[in-house]
UniProtKB/TrEMBL annotation:
Origin organism lineage: Bacteria, Bacillati, Actinomycetota, Actinomycetes, Streptosporangiales
Species in which this protein is naturally found: Planobispora longispora
SUPFAM superfamilies, alphabetized: NAD(P)-binding Rossmann-fold domains
Residues covered by the NAD-dependent epimerase/dehydratase domain: 4-207
InterPro entries reported for this sequence: Epimerase_deHydtase (IPR001509), NAD(P)-bd_dom_sf (IPR036291)
Protein name (database record): Reductase
């Protein structure tokens, strides 16, 4: 099978390339060569997806069975690559996001029938935020591609090489040890997925020539906050002591859910449905998910050799992690309230 990956050098795209090579695909990658390094064994075509000339040079004289577009964020730009690759590939797999669903993370469960944001397939970057634009990108593929349009909508992705910085931040913080501010209800059931499992599922669907749309998240309840943090402590061999601080206390002190304490989704209306999406359709179609413990172990195996000052805890869009002084202040305030000094 011949596979083109648009992107492919950082995290999820890298996992897709690695899995495609493992399966014996002939892999072409298309990126600018600035964010990461292509894996050995690929044909690396350098170019900017926003340049019509670069897209034409990519398409010239090449054909693929499947394109996997991992780095599409603007409908108009995705539409350009769809047009450039029409007739050059049988399947166009687009990595979207659960954020494309207008109902997420509302209080009802989300699945493939949940409406997507209303966004035109030729919208520009100014026409919406991340989730709105992802919905427009999906339409650019579904309406513009002549072959099979495969839309993959992942939930929260973890795993080795994570560039968003969520699990890397927790591993780094917990490895430092001492009292660690642990957010909210430790027993909330999450659903986490490893990039390598999304890679395998996407490529299996592309190999089968599927034209469909799938939510791809972990099995409901495959982790709790307590379980995730305990796994981090186990793999790092740390002496961390978790101090569980309730949602209200953190929100009152303006701790930002999801980012300042990564992956923390408080029990509040805004976050009520974060862990409610159903990936039942993808699982019925063959998605399998490794245990979260394996994801944590392998992420630490990759991260531990990177000096702390060179680790990245964020992207241009958002940074992750609480300032150590703020964490210490909150812990002191919480412990002061929990055990007031004797009168
Ligand atoms: N992390 C999550 O929890 C989560 C959840 C849901 C969905 N997602 C989606 O999953 C995907 C994750 O992507 P990733 O960063 O892991 O993918 P990746 O393919 O590993 O890395 C991004 C690639 O895009 C390339 N790129 C960026 N701008 C480019 C341009 N103008 N022209 C050509 N290539 C360009 C980069 O290379 P150069 O910069 O060198 O060009 C790099 O190879 C995204 O679509 C994201 O929306 C993520």
């Amino acid at each position: 099978m011949r596979t083109l990956v648009i992107g492919g050098s950082v995290f999820l795209g890298r996992a897709i390339v690695e899995e495609a090579l493992r399966r014996g695909h002939e892999v072409t990658t298309f990126n600018r060569g600035v964010s990461g390094q292509d894996l050995p064994g690929v044909e690396a075509v350098r170019g900017n997806r926003e340049s019509p000339e670069d897209l034409a040079r990519l398409a010239e004289g090449r054909e693929w069975d499947a394109v996997v577009d991992v780095c599409g964020f603007v409908p108009r730009v995705v539409g350009d690559s769809v047009r450039a690759l029409n007739g050059r590939a049988a399947t166009y797999a687009f990595i979207s996001s659960i954020s494309a669903c207008s109902g997420w993370p509302g209080s009802s469960p989300t699945d493939e029938s949940t409406p997507r944001f209303d966004c035109a397939p030729d919208a520009g970057p100014e026409d919406g935020d991340y989730g709105v634009l992802k919905a427009g990108c999906e339409r650019a593929v579904e309406q513009g591609f002549d072959g099979n349009a495969l839309i993959i909508e992942p939930g929260l992705i973890l795993g080795p090489h994570e560039n968003v910085g969520r699990l890397p931040w927790w591993l780094t913080r917990i490895a430092r040890g001492g009292k660690v501010l642990a957010p909210g209800d430790p027993e909330i059931a999450m659903q986490l997925i490893d990039a390598r499992d999304i890679a395998a599922f996407t490529l299996s669907q592309a190999e089968a020539g599927t034209a469909d749309r799938f939510f791809v998240s972990g099995v409901e309840g495959n982790a709790t906050y307590r379980g995730l943090l305990q796994e981090c402590r186990a793999v790092t061999g740390s002496d961390a002591e978790f101090v569980w601080v309730d949602d209200r206390f953190l929100l009152d002190r303006e701790v930002q859910p999801w980012t300042e304490l990564p992956v923390w989704a408080p029990r509040s209306p805004e976050f009520a449905g974060v862990w409610l999406p159903s990936s039942a359709k993808a699982r019925a179609a063959g998605l399998t998910c490794r245990p979260v413990a394996e994801t944590v172990r392998d992420t630490w195996a990759w991260l531990r050799d990177i000096p702390v000052e060179r680790r990245s805890f964020g992207t241009a869009r958002m940074s992750h992690g609480i300032d150590p002084d703020k964490e210490a202040e909150i812990l002191a305030a919480w412990e002061g309230e929990a055990s007031p000094a004797p009168a």
